Records
---
Amino acid sequence: MRVLLISNPNSTSQNSALFREVLPVIRDVEGLQLLARFTHYPGHAQDMVRGMTREDFDVILVFGGDGTVNEVVNGLLGPADSANRPSPQEIPVLAVIPTGSANVFVRALGFPNTPVEAAHVLARMLERNTRRTVSLGVWNDRWFAVNAGFGLDADVLARVDRAREMGFSATPLRYLAVAFQAYQRARIRPPRISVRARSSAGETFAADDVPVMFTSNTNPWTFLGPLPVVTNPRNSFDQGLGLFGVSDLGGIDGLVGVLHLFGVDHRHWLNKVTDARTLHFEDAVAVDLVCPKPHRFQADGESEGTFTEVHLESEADALEVFAPVDPAPPMHRNIRRILRDLVRIN
């Protein structure tokens, strides 16, 4: 088995000590040949794997976060609107060892969030050749694996990125603080998003002047530290896209609806409040989002610029990944690990 490992050497979450712990775990897989390459600029991972087939490598192993996963997916599959898009069996299988800040994709697949633990799980998957096929999202002609959003969530991510560039860490509390600030600005000048969607069963959804509309390809859509944030409980890598929106940002109901998007109401105690303001649609295969003025758009946690119109689709069985066959987490929880992760929230 020929494996190409791709890593960003400038990532603050990676260091030589971590490599010394992780790489031997993967190299010990019988019959595995490992080659490591490092990225040197944004988009390099996409350029690196563009046009690769299984004749080049059997596996592309991403040692990074959701942004690097997004680059590799787009490099392997090419433009989503291409008539010559490769089948999942023609391109290398994707594997991930998480080192990002959220790691939504790999955690939703059922892997641990820590690199060493995830490496041990992945090694067993490689030995047993345990893989599955997942659906992916498409926005315009590009792919996304986790989520995409117009407006508020894109503004939050852009501002968190600016904070990180200034040397601040992207902690869950920082996300919540930035989300509240973005909410206050959006209340004054809310986006006016028109939404049109169609499900695989032919059902339709339409809404106008929506200030917040979010699209996810996974369940959960993100994590608040160790806690999953769920907007569309029925969503999965085996279905279409899940839509979650807030119809009105005014009053306490609007605030609670926005905070629900960012995981504050993890136990759903405020369902009666949020149900009055939130919009849900499941298993969407086509979605059109239109704004009268340009607004930020994000995909897989990366800002993609400003747009007035975005078309999204769900592509079933788009990519093969190494992952547990049953990604459902065990019923019991590791209390020590949760407490350890909670201490890291500062």
---
Amino acid sequence: MSKDKSQHLQAGTASDEALQVIVVGAGVVGLASAVALARRAFKVTVIDKEGVAAGASFGNAGHFATEQVFPLADPALLPKLPGMLLDPLGPFRIRPAYFHKALPWFMRFVVNMSRKNRERNGVAIKALNLRSMAATRELLAFCGRPELLVENGSLLVFETRDKQVIDAEFRHYRDAGVAVKLLTGDEARALEPSLTEAITAALWFTEVGHTPSPKAICDALADTLLRLGGSIELGCVKQLQGPSALLDDGRKLTADKVLLCAGAWSRPLALSAGHKVPLDTERGYHLMMPQQSGLKRPVASFDRKFIITPMDGGTRLAGTVEFGGLEAPMSPARADCLLPHARALLPAVFAAATLEDGERWMGFRPSMPDSLPVLGESQSPGVFLAFGHQHLGLTWAATTAELMGQLMTGETPAIEMSPYSVSRFD
């Protein structure tokens, strides 16, 4: 990149003659991508049916989880599937009434459990993760909010006393190239004194981060987009027709390019652009508690399969998901079940806490059966795609923005894009 172009990216604003882009979706991926395009002097309009950070970008765990280098399609899940169907409060559940609808997705999911597919998908996950922290750091600095990224790492804590299990988990991450330290229980409590004495060991992932407010990141991106001459509109896009978006109120917005970042609602819009994608929805839950945990970093539980993140205004408990589509109502018990787990790990913090203190939330994570997002150009002229980030939307947002900005301006993307192409499902 030339020096002039680099300076332009730092300070560019759209002119009246600039190419126009419509970004569908005002979650963190859409907003980060919109800022990246506005920095390249596109005139950007973001459109969303509910507004900034109204979905999963509001309620996620706030964890930049670059340690998560393993595809979710793990053969170890197979014997657990019957229990997932039967346990309404397990960390991962399939609603029985939705099982037949989810079956095609799960058939593809099982195919991705093969060693060859897991290795291929893992390489593609790592490629995105490797750029994540630096890209996020740069983007938030540009927005004037560097404090929204806290780089104290994260902990994965164990209550089991089975040393073989702990050592195996440590080797699993270490051998995958993740920056990780194995701590004793006492060493973990030295980092986080509020942890229970029941913690026997921990993995400290030293090169990850968290945010005290996922919503604040989205607000900062939205403010930056407006400063660069972009706009944000409310509207429900029902169909894409080339670089045009048809809205349910009859309006038709036309631009030079369209970028689809509609998360869990992307599948029918991708279909209107000619792509049948195997996207399904993981319904993620959190319980936001007003108590301040005293934690300096996110703490996940190996045994309990949930995560605690210190945030502005309290402590977020998250981690339970279910397959149940976009229409079924929230299951409050799936958020409520997080409090007993938090009480067990942080007894001094949550001993007197009640469910009445907390706020329940559910959001929709867009998941692909190979754990990879769809990133790239559509077969429909002028249409570009960036959705399906599963549990790593916050983690990958800045990297996605960087890559889509490069792709949509004709630059050579920083990484090989073929693993994320929508054509992989043809």
---
Amino acid sequence: MTDNREPILSNGGLPLLRGVKHWQWWVLVALNVFFLIAGQAAAVLLGRFYYDEGGNSKWMATLVQTAAFPISLIPFLFLSSFTKETEASDSSSRPTFITLAALYIVIGILIAGDNMLYSIGLLYLAASTYSLICATQLAFNAIFSYLINSQKFTALISNSVVILSLSAALLAINDKSDAPQGVSKWNYIVGILTTLGASALYSLLLSLMQLSFEKIIRKESFSVVLEMQIFTSIVATCVSTIGLFASGEWRTLHGEMNSFHSGSVSYVMTLVWTAVAWQVCSVGVIGLIFLVSSLFSNVISTVSLAVVPIVSVIIFHDNMNGVKLIAMLFAVWGCGNYFYQNYLDDLKAKRREPVANVAPNNAC
């Protein structure tokens, strides 16, 4: 790159977009942060509302997490106006159609499985407990980022991994007094285990997406982010639809809608807005992976999860007992370590690269 107006590589993430000025890069990051926080917080709360009001279809809860993928076209068409399309300099390094198809199919199937695990977890757990356990995705992401993306494993990150693990352990040994009505002790444990599994798989997906952008797709434009979002969502939606019909849950949807406590119109609107919220969140997730890194995307995702327990206490009257409060403080502490590490990395990058220098072409 030769334009000295372009920003310096930040937080050890992916290469910054060519032709993007410093302020434009920050605008893109800020917009994607907003999409992620607002979308995820709203989606989790609406998902809990769906179950509380009488919804019971795990496959429907899974399907709505990707079914609204066409909405991604709207923000990405707007955001793409900030950037210039640039191809990899070596045309031979471009992936073939078969390679891209295989990549999107594999990631799409993993996304569908991850969404199902999240749906089961939210069915059996209060929104606040669910969100606190999801905070462990930072610990999982630290491990996968180290193994897959060569992320440095610093003392602060190691400390955060331990703290977030303790937070999840506290919730695991907590009684089920905060579980939704009618949930057994066994289902409560299943909810914890599936949410932990979903957090681990989600973190693996983030690292695999970052690796895909760096090593396979190797093209710096928002069009590749749009393609990743659309095609993996199509695959995940197809898998979820097949699961909905294969499981027979589709037969119960009409009765579920008629018996929904808030009415059939509320049932439809809940599913529609849940789908929209998840898609807004997904746009933010992939956008931040592309602009910065999977680790940074996961940090912002956890910030959103920290908002949910507070809101769920107000809206759903979730029980905020001492164990859950300590777990929340641990989660905030662990997230704080991540933010401070990113702050130190940013300062180090600025000292290493003068403002007039160009951004490097390789990720750290």
---
Amino acid sequence: MDLLKQSYAHGSSPLPPNAAASQYHVYLFGGNISKSLSPLLHSILFRANSASWAFHLTETTDGNIFRKQLDDNTCIGTTITMPNKVSFGLLLDDLTEEARMIGAVNTSFIRLDKSGQRRHIGTNTDCIGIRDSILYRMPDAGTTAKGRPSMVIGGGGAARSAIFALWRWFGSTEIYIANRLKAEVDALIAFFQSTAPDITLKYLATAKEAATCETPYIVIGTIPNDIPREAGEITCRQICDTILCRKNKGVVLDMCYLPSPVTYLYTNGKGNGWAVIPGTEVLVRVCIAQQILWLEKDVNKQGVDDAMSAIWKAVNQGESGPKASKI
């Protein structure tokens, strides 16, 4: 519950004694979110905590609509997805350290200042979902991974969250980046040089480099599960294959879960003897972290189990949305 304790650095609780029975509302803001799995998961988690709160989708990129909703006293928090993770964060009253260093916000919660005024705090729970998914499967990973390199596949926003998690909680000495475009990696390196200069990032350009570098202990995929077609995509796949064939196996986590959590990276990692974690687990643990900030208590085990079962069933029955993951 360190997440909850740290949240109080931004103010005190806004919840009354009968908060669970109150008619509070949480909103998801983003583009193309009609088939989001967040309503399914949050309804399960609210119910597990006996909270009669409602979760709503607001498909918009309009910051004015977002800010107006925050001003409603029944709004107890929001979840923010693409393409709003950067722009909407600027409209909040404050940001946590994670949000500042990653440069993106996917969650807002409320704390009261000394005069009792509501303050909307932005944070990033994507990185916490990554951390908790790994530690649940491998409780000793925080110690085992320390002092060893890790690898992230991709160069977008999800890659930022993965890099932060590997640096902050797993003590990675160096983080390799495999990506189809070097320009994206250059931009990623430049970004972290400005927000977290202690993070050491290295671009793997060829499979030959992957064959000679120290084997990473944690590998995190942040790209869609598409068949590689362009030269950069093919090289990136070759780099991943080379790494997974190395000795000294560790853990593979693929954040992509649509159209199926059983991705190429997941299957290849498992086939080569790595411990594997599907993206569905990350999404559930992202939602759990959000619930802790809103409800100010942990989710019971039955709620977690129900959410895990529900999302696995949903994605495997084709009830989910677009091909790339959106959390």
